[in-house]
Amino acid sequence: MPLDRISRRAVLAGTSAAAITAAMPIGRAVAALPPLKVGVIHPTSGFMALIGQICNRGAAIAPALLEEWGYPKLDIRYGDTETNPDISRAAGNRLIDNGAQILVGAFDSGQTTTLAQAAEQRGIPLMIDIAGAPQITEQGYKFVFRNFPRAPDIVGGALTVHKQIFAVSGKVPDKCVCLYRNDTYGNAIKKALDAMIPKFNMPYKVVEFIAYDPQARDLSVEVAKAKSTGAEFVLAVSVANDAILLTREMVKQRWLPWAIAAAGPGWYDQSYRKALGKLGNYPISTVPWQDPTKARTKEVLATLAKKFPGQAVDSSTMYTFEALLIVADAYKRAGSAAPQALAEALRHTELPAKDTITIGNPKGIFFDAKGQVNGIPMAGIQNLDGEPKVVLPIGSAEAKLVFPQPAWQGRA
Amino acid sequence: MLDVYLNQIVSGVLTGLVYGLSALGLSVIFGVCRIINFAHGEMMVVGMYLALMLFRWAGLDPLLSIPIVGGVLFAAGYALQGGLINRLIGVPEHMQFIMLAALAIVIVSSCLMIFGPDLQNAPLSYAYDSYQIGPILVDKVKIMAGGAALVVAALLAAFFRWTYLGKAIRACGDNLTGAVVIGLNVKRLYALAFGIGAGCIGVAGCILLLLVDVQPYLATDYTLLAFVIVIVGGLGSLAGALIAGVLIGVSEAVAGLLVQPSLKSVFSFALLILVLLLRPQGLFGRQA
Questions:
Q1: Which of A124, A252, B11, B175 is the most exposed place for a label (fewest CB within 10 A)?
Q2: For residues B134 and A5, what is the distance between their CA atoms, to the nearest angstrom?
Q3: pLDDT (0 to 100) of residue A232
Q4: Predicted local distance difference test score (pLDDT) of residue A70
Q5: What is the C-alpha separation between B84 and B102, in angstroms, rounded?
Q6: H helices of A170-310, where?
Q7: CA of A105 to nearest chain B CA: how many angstroms apart?
């Protein structure tokens, strides 16, 4: 436009626009960023299909909600590990070949391990949403990051919650009995318990560790043996099906421990609560969990309720969402989808706790030199009125802890 | 601690009676038709699902479904024998195995497609009731299951001992040539025997639904268990199957307490190996 044709109005408009843009550089930069191609990989077929699909619900709602919060657009592409570590690697490579600039996954430790190898080899960042094997972030990888507690942290966190239970209730059991699945997962937790119980100086004595066949249809012998120890506190390492069998036997054998404390999943699952009704109330699960008191968590829960009506929310969904939140935050700061830039931005993540979703480190999300977020506490989740509710830590509690549990009779 | 063992022994006996009943069907089929039914567990799972459906649709307690489920499985077994199993009589055993294993896969896959993979059960109003007699605490469900298994086994034994048809079926099993010579309709009797065996398996399925949740993949465990019981008790011996079932039930319960519960199956198989070494025809079987 020739200078003599420029009006005062045009100058004023241009100056105002420049001032506004200068005041909000990030907003302009976010709008200018192309969508980040994110490969989300979980087991969506095979025997872990259900949990993989649950994780993907977090990815389904993430792009729209994160954009509302002022983060750049995410273009999600899905991969399936088929519950197989080798296929997990292949799925990761395939997504990268098809343009994925960052990967998120993969729930299972074995499948995540191979995915991490693929990501590191290809120089593409991997944001691990869920996987507990400690060795994944001990390999010296430069492109692998994890916002989930490692197995020893899970056990240590569980023991911390037990102490909180006793402190809040004022009741301390003398004896504990541990019932655990005789498989890789159960034995790994048992090994961690053996090592950590003495270090944590627990007030109870574990009088017996009782392994049971994961395929067993009848756990009456196991429960009888546990009952005979006279333990007041039960530590369970199981999945939903075993939890159902164990609870039924406890009711039939008229054994009422003060609490069943589950180190892991199963006891808060929808299938457990549906199968047992009121008899499924009061087990306390010590697990990584979402923080129901945070504003963003409430928004995520509301969005999930709208998109997946009638479906119980699983913390796996929330951890996948949070992984994508971290990715979006890193992309926003990096201003570039180049792998090195993304990896550097992830390494310098400093998400304040109030902006996160899960009950995490009170100082927020930040990675150590190995790409691991540390200090993630376990939550105490108790089934109350048929729903899992956070009862510990007190600061994130949405209901009051019930310990010891009331009698079986009169519940059903 | 004595009361704990007593409780487990009682529980083992009651559970063992149900195991024994499930193995009776296998024993009947082998004892007469000389066919080893590798689809045994699968037929029992079908019985469980039928009982579950009757519970859901008609509110029928699984114990009250026994005549219906037993009848349906009897008819299916009768038809199966005539249509398929008959062709396996006299053929090499590996062909019997392949055919029946294939049938088992068809049954499991069909159950998977119709009912899905999840565990399902019949939520009975008395499912959590138990009786206390002194130091012994027993599930109401186990007492009813064990009692029903004993009654059905007794009726079956009475049928084979005192009815003309039962004696005729036994004659086929004991001496096929003699049975043909005296004019027995062997084909029909074989079909009846297979039907009775299948019906017995179906009844065991109804009773087992009281104790465990059903899913399609349950079948393999119970096929294996039935084989262990029949071999320990003696192939073809009804009393042997029942007693061996009780032995297995009690050994699992007590072994689980003495050693580790996750090793309780080890004792059943150890018992099997011992019997095979010392008395290969089984505790109540006839020597070849």
A1: B175
A2: 107
A3: 97
A4: 96
A5: 12
A6: 184-200, 220-228, 240-252, 270-276, 295-307
A7: 26
Query: Is B176 strand, coil or helix?
Result: helix
What is the rounded average pLDDT of the residues B205-222? 90
Rounded Cα gap, residues A286 and A265, in angstroms: 8
Which DSSP state fits A364? Answer: -
Mutate to test the interface with A, among B260, B263, B269 (most CBs of A within 10 A): B260
Close Cβ partners of A7 (under 8 Å, ≥ 6 residues apart): none
Say whether B130 and A412 touch across the interface (CB within 8 A).
no
Per-residue pLDDT for B4 more than 50? yes
Structure tokens given for A156: 């240590």
pLDDT of residue A7: 61
Find chain B residues with C-beta within 8 A of A254's C-beta.
130, 132, 137
Higher pLDDT among residues A189 and A207, named by residue = A207
The whole-number pLDDT of residue A63 equals 97
Quick check: A241 contacting B, CB < 8 Å?
Answer: yes
| pLDDT-based confidence at residue A30 (cuts at 50, 70, 90) | low
Owner of token pair 């994130």: A396
> Would you state the structure tokens that stand for residue B163, as one six-digit string?
């009815």
Disruptive mutation site among B262, B263, B264, B267 for chain A (greatest number of A CBs within 10 Å): B262
Quick check: A310 and A57 in contact, CB under 8 A? no
Mean pLDDT score across all residues of chain B: 88
Closest residue in chain A to residue B251, using alpha carbons only: A221
Whether the CB-CB separation of A351 and A329 falls below 8 Å is answered with yes
Q: Which one of A217, A227, A241, A279 makes the best mutation probe of the B interface by having the most chain B beta carbons within 10 Å?
A: A217
To the nearest whole Å, the CA of B266 is away from the closest chain A CA by 11
Going from the N-terminus, what domains does chain B have, and what CATH number goes with each? 2-122+144-278 (1.10.3470)
For residue B176, the number of C-alpha atoms closer than 13 Å in the C-beta half-sphere is 9
| Cα radius of gyration rounded to whole Å, chain A | 24
Given a cut of 60, is residue A26 above it in pLDDT?
Answer: no
CA distances A199 to A157, A159, A192, A205, A292, Å, are: 13, 10, 11, 13, 31
Residue A213 to residue B265, Cβ atoms within 8 A: yes
Who among A215, A221, A251 is closest to B253 (CB)? A221
- A212 DSSP 8-state letter: E
Find residue A103's DSSP bridge partners: A39, A126
Choose the weakest-confidence range: B156-165, B168-177, B257-266: B257-266
Q: How far, in Å, CA of A256 to CA of A259, rounded?
A: 8
Judge whether residue A24 has pLDDT over 50. no
Q: What is the structure's pLDDT at A286?
A: 94
Give the C-alpha separation, A163 to A169, whole Å. Answer: 10
Share of chain B above pLDDT 70, in %: 99
**Which domains, and CATH codes, for chain A?**
33-149+292-355 (3.40.50.2300), 152-287+379-396 (3.40.50.2300)
